[in-house]
# Entry
Amino acid sequence: MSKINNQIFSSYDRNPILYDELYDTEGKVKEMYSKLFNLYGEHSKKDYVKLNEKAKASFFNQGITFQVYDKEETKEKIFPFDLFPRIIDPQEWDIIERGAIQRSKALNLFLWDIYHGKKIIKQGIVPMELISSSANYLHQMNGIDPPGGIYNHISGTDVIKHNDGKYYVLEDNIRCPSGVSYVICNRTALKRALFGVFNHYQTHTVTNYAENLLDLLETVKPKGVDVPNVVVITPGMFNSAFYEHSYLAKTMGVELVEGRDLFVENDFVYMKTIRGPKKVDVIYRRIDDAFIDPLEFRPDSSLGVPGLFAAYKKGNVTLANAPGTGVADDKAVYTYMPEIIKYYLNEEPILNNVHTYHCSRPDELKYVLEHIHELVIKPVDEAGGYGISIGNRLTKEEIETVKKQVSENPRKYVAQPIMSLSVHPTYIDDSESFEQRHVDLRTFTVLGKDKEFVLKGGLTRVALQKGNLVVNSSQGGGSKDTWVLK
Amino acid sequence: MLARVANNLFWMGRYIERSEHIARYINVNYFSSLDAPNELSQSRQFVLRSMLFMVGDPEHDETKVLDEEKVLYKIGLDNDYPFSIINNVKYARENANSARDLISTELYEAINKFYHFVLKYDAEAYVKNGLHDFTVNITEMSAILRGKMRGTLLHNEIYAIIMMGVNIERATQIIRMINAKYNDALKSQGSYGDKFSNSFEWTTLLKCAESYDMMRRFYKKTPNSISTLEFLILNPNCPRSIMNSLNQVYKHIKVLDPSKKYNKNSTAFLVGKVRAEYEYKYIKEIEEDIQSFIKDILDNLSEISQKMESEFFNY
# Structure
């Protein structure tokens, strides 16, 4: 089956302890990957280096970059990507997709409940202090009925494959998760660089995200609106995710606005156009809760729109995602997801949760303090992978520091067993060869009124540092094209 | 479309057009001077002064000896000089960034390539032997951008805004070139028996506007002051002429303001009035007082730009 002289994988150093998605436990290439393996193997190392450089130039030319602010000047860097795609078979994908929808729906019902009757708290399923102590809980949202009843229109579910071969959810991101534009960029880059490989696999498209996003955003238009005017609001072109903001606006065919382009009059939102004011009905926001309206939240915010929240309360404008979703985008609430799913949907969870120890519970706190070397300690409300401590990488002194931090503020931390994230062959520039690197998968789910959509692909994120388990791009990670087979 | 973004697109169009005209001007003047038929036109100092004059930074000290490499660097790649080509390209790209959701992917990618080309150009190579390569690439990439604008954008108000910017800037730059060459022709008369009206500078001017070949086809004679100025100012079929640019501006303002009868305070009214004024001018009356003509047209173009700003871009 496999060629003896597969050039670019010849130096692939396989650690048999790790779950490798390319090789089975006997060291053979898995059938799903065998054609791909052979196709890549036809390239000499020199060819592949050249292809890689061309692909990078393509990203650069397309302006798919983020800005790194230096002392003297702003530098542009491309989001690191790898040209060797990840393949997910249809049966596995079905589980992922159904699981992602299930979690998104459950979270939506949870959000409704905690901003209305709070039944799940009154019945003791979820403790009150988890909600009331969360900085992301917005009392201003109590009693508000968002148009269409949707809070988390856009969700990003982060999934890993453990060394038992099963998928586990690491996190539910429902504060406007980023990364979907890179899904399309990775596909484009791979198509340009190695178009021949697509002849051998039937893979689902990823270019239909924007049309589905717009369709679903239009289903949550305010009452009385016939054809809604949808906009994307961005902090501005110096924001690190601006490429994605403009990409989404362009591909949906809607206006990309900043706070200064909008104003509120009589509790309706308008945008300033060359022909005068035009009413805005649905706002897909890429601005944090605290900044959306200086009259209601941070008074010093110049990114938001004065009076926006009042218009939202009146039901005259839809905000996607709704304010206050951060309370459920919380690593402590995550640990209750199995109960939340059962409570609202009367279903068993389709995707596994990683078992989580709540440091706010005395008996679990005790376990955590005694087993830090086996655990990942996470602050519950930090986004972007910051503040994570991985137990088996800590020195004795560091372990003592973590113990102290957790003891002093247990509510702030959760702990989980160190998961053995699967690895995938990834081309490493420095060594000019493929190496094993840990990966996760961020899925992208959109909820509309009575409709939902999951992009068939998602973003496979790669931890580029050898052995690193943190795949988040702000911590130096990269990404791969992800093929969901038909 | 948003007023703020419209403003950015207008200036994107202007900066792209400006970059190209500066590049063409320094290219043609530098290379045609190498074997120019008259003594002064062949002078390096004369050429360098002309370049600075054209970009709006004339050297007033007649005794100063200009350093060629410094002048070329300043006009081409000096990040600290606001009117340099590199800064015009940066501004164009920055304006495009804020509107990349409105313009096509093809146009944005072309602008981005243009930007990175200029950004990465080696300054040392440029001033020593890269002038031709640099300026020809600027010209060609600008042409690609105009092709992408025309060929990939919906010809709606967004397109109209960009093309207003392009054409107002084009007319402005042609006038600046005419002004620079008029001064050069005055200075160079007397050498080798040349007179003002038959100066070599008129040929140079036409080449700066990429209009020499078509002018020869139209007049079938060596350029002189009257034929050159008539071609570049009044001929509506010369794509680089003032008249053509004004016609384009008028065409595009009607997309933005489709009224049949214009408000007297509107941009469309002003554009129509200015355009009509030049449509019925003839070259003799212009040539009699060229300095007044130049001042008037620059004032008119500036007024149109300001009127657009207040009518469409301000909130």
